[in-house]
Design brief:
Blueprint: H1 2-52, H2 69-75, H3 78-111, H4 116-128, H5 131-141, H6 148-155, H7 170-195, H8 199-207, H9 213-224, H10 226-241, H11 245-251, H12 262-272, H13 276-301
Length: about 300
Amino acid sequence: MADLALDDGTARRAARAAARAEGFAAWRLSAPAVLLLAMLILAPTLAVVGFSLSDYELGYDGIRFIGLDNYAELLGDRTFLISLKNTAIYTAIVTPASVLLGLGVALLIEAETRGRALFRTVYFLPVASLLVAMATVWQYLLHPSIGPVNEMLRLFGIPGPNWLGDSKTVLLSLALIGVWQSVGFNMVLFLAGLTAIPRELYAAAEIDGAAGAWERFRLVTWPMLGPTTLFVITISVVNAVKVFETVGTLTQGGPNKASEVLLWTIYQEGFVYLRVGYASAMTVVFLAVLVVLMLLQYRVLDRRVHYA
């Protein structure tokens, strides 16, 4: 019995030693990734939170802790509130439009047997193109006097507006550019999701009476695209909230702050007015908005997603 107990204890110690060795090996393998995560994400985030509680200004000596004063100032900052509203409107236009158009284009390309590679390339070009350069093209297209868009409207007797110079149309114009930019990327994601759907499901649905294209889409394609759709919506929201290049290139937040968005306001405060502490407070609010949006999406949409 003593020998049996001794063997049992030795086996347990060996198992614990093996588990410790395995855990140590796992930490060694994951250490580079954890270190990079801490250096590139966690440390800058903590630094931004720290700066947001101070009055630090770039180029000035000294830094003073002021608590939540920057956040209190944000509540009465008209420019910040306007940028928050404009970002929300921009996101509300770009996200559903780019998701639906991306899905529609993906379905059309998937149904076409010839020229798939050509169509994929054509629709993906806006994603691969340099947005700052393409913004110059859009500036010409939407020019109030020589732009092709207004020239086409004049053919039908419609006076074209000053798309980027009128406070009533500038945000809509930027949103249309954002949709144009996002559709190709969403299309590629949806094409990947469509390719992963087993063809046997369509055959089974047809046997069960779903002969029409709409019935097959409603009963097979849409439920099976649930995970892809959730991912596409998430990415589209993040990209829409992060809009910056088109605003910086085309409008600089004008006219009359009609196209002022969050990232442009943060850039102005931090790198033009050099108020790093105040810009950091805006950045913390920006990150909080992103986190809340992600949580809402996953709590609401994840319950309706069918995972194969």
